[in-house]
Amino acid sequence: MARILGYIATSLDGFIAAPDNSLDWLFKYEGMDLGEHDYAHFLKRIRTVVMGRGTYDFLAKDSAPWAYGHQRVIVVTSRPIDDPMGPLETRSDVDALIAELRNLDDGDVWMLGGGQLQMAFMERGALDEIEIYVMPELIGGGRPLFPPTGFQSSPKLISATALDRGCVRLHYAF
């Protein structure tokens, strides 16, 4: 059975993107030393990447090559994707998708991108663990790490680690 994981960065004031959806505040940390927690190490464990349509559209605007050619990619959307960036599948039913992901046995699943889809999975008890990288930046607003939905939970802290350049890694299990 596949584990469904989150791996996400947030500003110290709890935002994953600035008000203009920019990640410039985060990009200035490119190249920082995350050691064994580095994104490249994390991605090697991932067989399936799941993202919402907003995250896909954000990535599709980037001129960089499609980064997920070695993984199965599923975009949760109700709209067709014309001329996709790379091989991908679409799903519109989150509950059916969760059942499908739970039946995978070829590697872990990463919930890529914004907090909205991660929240939908948390509300359904389907997110197993999350790594949150808290960056020492106050950006004053934007997209929250998790949208306020009324959902309540008390995840178990697995570890808290100070990393390079003031970043703190928080690892929780649900």
Describe this entry's structure for a reader.
The protein is an alpha/beta fold. It has one domain (4-173): Dihydrofolate Reductase, subunit A (3-Layer(aba) Sandwich), CATH 3.40.430.10. The chain is built from five helices and ten strands. It has helices spanning 24-27, 39-44, 53-60, 94-102, 115-123; strands at 4-11, 15-17, 46-52, 72-76, 89-91, 108-112, 129-135, 143-144, 156-162, 168-173. It has an eight-stranded mixed beta sheet. The chain has a two-stranded antiparallel sheet with strand order 2-8. The radius of gyration is 16 Å and the shape is globular. The two termini are 16 Å apart. The mean pLDDT is 95.
Question: What is the element layout, followed by pairings?
Answer:
Blueprint: E1 4-11, E2 15-17, H1 24-27, H2 39-44, E3 46-52, H3 53-60, E4 72-76, E5 89-91, H4 94-102, E6 108-112, H5 115-123, E7 129-135, E8 143-144, E9 156-162, E10 168-173
Parallel strand pairs: 1-6, 1-7, 3-4, 3-6, 4-5
Antiparallel strand pairs: 2-8, 7-10, 9-10
Provide the descriptors you would attach to this structure in a database record.
single chain; 174 residues; alpha/beta; Dihydrofolate Reductase, subunit A; 8-stranded mixed sheet; 5 helices; 21% helix
Briefly summarize what is shown.
This protein has 5 helices and 10 strands. By secondary structure, it is an alpha/beta fold. The protein starts with a strand and ends with a strand.
Regions with little confidence, pLDDT below 50 for 5+ residues: none
How large is the count of helical segments? 5
- At the fold tier of CATH, the topology name is Dihydrofolate Reductase, subunit A
Oligomer: single chain
Order of helices and strands: EEHHEHEEHEHEEEE
Q: Looking at this structure, what is the CATH superfamily?
A: Dihydrofolate Reductase, subunit A
Structural class: alpha/beta
Distance between the termini: 16 Å
- State the CATH class: Alpha Beta
Q: How are strands sequenced across the largest beta sheet?
A: 5-4-3-6-1-7-10-9
